[in-house]
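Researcher: Let's continue the batch. This sequence belongs to Actin, and it's 84 residues. Same format as the previous ones, please.
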Amino acid sequence: IEVSVEPFSAQIFYLNDIGIHQILIDSIVKCDISIQQELCNNIILAGGTTNIQGFRDRLQEELQALAINQIHIYDGVPEKRQYV
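Model: Same format as before. Here are the structure tokens for Actin:
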């Protein structure tokens, strides 16, 4: 089975929810502008769902599509991430 965009696109399943990339950006822009770039440079993935193959790359692509080019996504502690 080959999976493409389905795990990342709530709209395909008729869900009105927004994606994690949009939630992330909405959270960052609600913070003081003086720390927004620092927040973009320190995104940390945690939790079992972030272990989905391609999650990190897709998140980065989605953020870059929103013109957020200067980001850094850390994988946290990969061997223990599913327990966080």
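Researcher: Any comment?
Model: The domain at 6-83 is CATH 3.30.420.40 (Nucleotidyltransferase; domain 5).
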